Amino acid sequence: MELAGQVAVVTGGSRGIGRAIALELARAGAKVVIGYRSGAANAAAVAAEIDGLAVQGDVADTAGCEALVAAAEAVGPVRILVNNAGMTADGLAMRMSDAQWDDVLSVNAGGSFRMARAVLPAMVRRRDGVIINLASVSALRGNPGQANYAASKAAVLALTRTLAREVGRRGVRVNAVVPGFIDTDMTRGLPDAVLEGAKEQIPLRRLGLASEIAPMVRFLCGPGASYVTGQSFVIDGGLSA
Fold first, then answer.
1. Which residues are catalytic?
2. Domains (range + CATH), the chain
3. Whole-angstrom distance, CA of residue 240 vs CA of residue 132
C-alpha cells in the first residue's frame, strides 16, 4: 500500500491501459479519480470497482481539464497525474486532413500539457508530485498511416523531459511510459493482417497486455522511484530493440 491515501488522476481511465492503471494504483492504496470523455457507464463501473470517482472532461479543452482537477482536489491534494487519454485518426500523410492532424495532436500532446499545467501549481507549492505521461513506441520508430499519432507521442516525450527539468527542483517528478502494441480496443480495431504483421516484428511474438503496463506506472509513482525523473520506459516486447 505504498500509495495509501494519495489522490491520483488517470485520464482516459474507463478502459484499456487507463483502466488497468486505475486498478493498479487503487491496489497500491491510492484514491483514484478517473477522467473520461465518453463511455460514462464504463467509467462508473471502474470507479465502483475501486471505490473511486469518475469525472467527465475533455482533455482537449482547458476548462475541462481544470474542472477535472478541481473535482479531484475536492477529494484531496492531487499527488499523481497519469496522462493516458489518447486518440487515433489514421491515414497516409499525403491524404490526411487538417482535422485529423489537429484533433490527434490536441488530445494526445495538448491534453498532456493542459492537464500538467492544471496540476503543477499545487504540486510545486507542496514540493511533491508525480506526473506520468503515456507515449507510444510509434514515437520512436514511426508507423505508416500514423504521422499525426507518432508526432503527438514524440511531443509527449519532449514534454516529459522539459517538465522534468522545470519542476524537478521543486520536488515534482515527470516520467513517460512507452507501450508497444497492446491488446486494447484501439488495437483490436486494426485489420488482422496488420496485427499479424506486428506480431512478426515483436521478438516476444505477441501483443502486450494492459496489465503489463500498469505495474511500471505504479512503480514510477511510488517511493522506489524517488530518484527517477525525465525518463522514458519502453514496454514493447522488444519491438524497438
1. 149
2. 7-229 (3.40.50.720)
3. 21
